[in-house]
Structure formats: C-alpha cells, structure tokens
Amino acid sequence: MWKRCCGDGSRWMLVLLLLCGMAVSLAGCAGKGTPTASYVTSAPAVRLSPAEQAAFDSTGQLDRGLSQKGKNAVLREYTRYLRQNRSSSNVIVRRSEKYLAQTREVFRRYGLPEELAYLAIVESGYNPEAVSRSGAAGAWQFMPGTGKHYGLAKDDWLDERMDPYKSADAAARYLKRLYQHFGNWYLAVAAYNAGEGKVARARDRAGCRDFFELVERNHRLSAGVRLKDETLAYVPRLLAVVKIMRNLDTLGFAPIYPEREERMVPLRAQPGTDLMALAKASNMPWAKFRAGNTAHKHQITSAYQMTVVYVPESRRALAQAHLRTASPTRYRLYTVKSGDTWRSISRQGGVEVPALLAVNQGVRLKTGIRLVVPDGNIAGQTRLAEQKRPAAGRLVSDAAEATVRQATHIVQAGDSMWSIARRYKVKPQDLMRWNNTDGGNLQPGDRVVIRM
Question: Is residue 392 predicted with pLDDT exceeding 50?
C-alpha cells in the first residue's frame, strides 16, 4: 500500500515538476523575448500634469479610437519622450523642422495621414545620415534591397537613402502598399519596422487583426514567429510622438515653424559636377550646401549619370546659371591597395595631394576602399592648400607621408572635438593640439585638420 502510494506520488511529483519546468520556460521566453501584456499594455504608474494629460487626450488621424490597452502602451512611451529623454527630444524636434513641411506635402499627395511624417523621428531622429548596425540608412532607415525596390540608387557616388526628400517619397509609397495589404495603420507601421511577412505571420498565428491584441498574444507565439521588443514598442512610440508634436507649445517645447523653412528645390546636375564650386556659385557656405545634399558621397557627382542636387528656392537662379555653363570635372575611382599612401596615389593619378584630399574628406586609407581621383584642380584644392604647410613648403614630406596623412573634416551641427576624434580614431587631445584650440565654440562649417 505504501509502495503503491509512493509510486503514484512519484508520478504526480514528476508531472508537477514538468509543469513547473514548462511554466519557467514560458516565463523565461516571455521575459527574454517580448514585454507583452504584463508590461506593454498595462497601465504605467505615472501621474501627468494637466497640460500633459490634455495633450495625451488629444486625437488626430492616427491615434483616434485607441483602446485602453493601446492608451496604456502609448502612455509609457509618451512619458519616456517627455521626461527621461527630454533633452534628446528637444534636439530631434528642432532637427525635424527643416524637413516636415515638404514631407507632409508628400504624404498628402499620396492620400496618407500627414502624421506619418513623424515616423522618421522614431526611425532616426530625422537624421538623413543615420546608419544602423543592420545597414539601414537615412532618415527613413531603408535597407539596401528595399531602397532599390523603391527607386533609391546606391553606388560608389550616391546613396539616395540619405536623400531626405526622395526617401520620404519612397517611404510614403511603401507605407501606402503596407496599408493596402493590412487594412490597418498600426499593423502597416509595425510592418515598416519588422517586415511585411513577419507581421503577417504573427498576426495570422495569433488569430487577431488588432495590433494591441497581437501585442498581448505575442508571448504565446513560437520564437520564430514572435515579434521583437522593438516592434512591440514601435507603434506606441509613433503615437506618442504624434501627440507630442501636435502639442509642442503646451508641453513646453520651443516652437518650430516648418512652413517658414525655405523650400529646397531639386536641380539636375551633369556627371562630374563639382559640388563645392556649385555651392560657391550659389552663394552658399559649403557646410550648408552639404547638409542639403547628404546623398552625395563625394564633393563631385557621379561619373555615370545625371543626378539631383538641392538648393534653396532663393538660390535656384544662381545654381541653374552655374550648372548651364560649368565644365564637368574629370575623375575616376581608385581602389586602395596595401602600402598605398596619399602621396603615392597622387603620383599615380597625376594630381596634387590637396586636390586628392579635397574630394575624399574624412577618408582614412584602408585596403579595398574606393577613392575619387580628380584630373586637375577643383574648388576644394585651393582651400586645402591654404592650410599652413611645413617649413619645406609641402603639405607633407615624402618621408613623413607614410605615417602622417592630413585630411580636413567640415564641422556639422552637433559635432564636437570628442565626436570627431572618435570618428577618425584619434585622441581628442591630439586633435585639439593640431588645430590650436581647446575644443570649444565649434561652429557648423568650421574646418578641423586631422593627421592620421
């Protein structure tokens, strides 16, 4: 009797242990995989001020009719942007001002909610030169394959994923197709982040058509089907940004006026157009011109095709006059080989080192990379040559060239001596010594010398 009971008890104990193991395993998967119902759609313990509450309660095209679970998820991201990440939010809001008017116009043209223009804030902080670890690039973070599908060229000369205007048009077309497939903006936006197939499989396996229901059921899906944390937070993040951007003044942000930004107009440039010469002819500082033409990888345009350049509307006539009369710069691409130096490449190409550095600004020599080798003088050569030279009267001596190479970085908004040093892998103290500065008061357009 005792033995039989003990045997039965062992079997029950084994069952209980297996059940406990399954529970631990499932809990572990949920914790490691996605913060589902217990986190994303549960009410966060936050207290909003009256102004914050009023802004949160406001609705528009995208956030109208949110369920309570949806509101809880959005509230969590809303407070994060407003409080924990307030300083970053200020920078991003200001950066978006330059692009919002033209982006909204694009979305209106395709019959899409204008509030989708704020998706680039979630994607990249509206940084047209952003590059992710996975290889997505630009304000709208297109992968190379998707970008190519939507007409964004990428080659040695150009990466149109970093063209904020063309990429916005591509993003609008992509989002429109996703909406046509899903019939729901939240699922369409989630698919923009995770991919159409990934979201469709998760939706079908979960057996629901609502994004926030999918969030709640996500932890029950197999690991290969389950949506990642990033996607679960992506839609609430967009809706939080929408509410904030709609109420910047009442939430205490500095006001922005996108409609007052001068419109950027596209112009067609011949192959081999010297962009620095075009900027000068347009009466624009190079840094400002460069900031509006981030898709171009070099100071000169593609050798193989006509390309688009952007200038403010007020500079259109000057730029067009130059483009009609300017002679193209002749150049070729050169693949760096082991043992190459700037001096040896300049000799092979029959061009002076300053001209070579001018069209390859910020480039560090590395076997396999592609350099532009111009034929003759270009606008940047004179400016580089005006830098202080060594006593021998040369940019660098032949003997020193193997170990000391000099390039120039043009300061962009947000740059510091520390960020520039990190980018070029040099010490900040060396960078400040080379430029005779303490590192303060850098302004966009300033030139910083780098010795490598």
Answer: no
